[in-house]
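Write out this protein's structure.
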Amino acid sequence: MEQSTELSRRNFVAVTAVTVAGCACAAQQAFAQESSKGDAQAEKDAKDTGPKQVEVGTVKDYEKDGVVDKFAKPNKFFIVRHEGKLYAPTAVCTHKKCTIKIKNGAMTCPCHGSKFTPAGMPMGGPAKISLYRFGISAGQDGKITVDKTKTFDEKKWEEEGSFIKV
């Protein structure tokens, strides 16, 4: 008895469907693993960029509400004056870890279009997690220092060290 080595149409469709489903599952698992690494890795990357403590001037240098991006590229943080506070949110997007830029006055990720409020909360695009903030303090001499060894997620934004009252 001779066995046929030809693949029937039905078997071809079944094999193709199983292969496609397997590829889809593998891609989904890889995406999930990458996403779970995301926030911790972004925080680590931002901390590892440049010096750990960065002097950013004095309160007088930030007299108006708004976002200053002078430190975004070299040190991966912004200086924001908003609602009577001065703070230093990361300039690393919580979605795909691109460096955020100021576009039309808003913090915007150039990779996928995520936008963030001055407080650092996502307000559009695929990012769902708020920007964390670095520690910030004013010395006796009035000079402000951003401490990249200290971070504050959204739940800790009201803690001492996450902002300066102005």
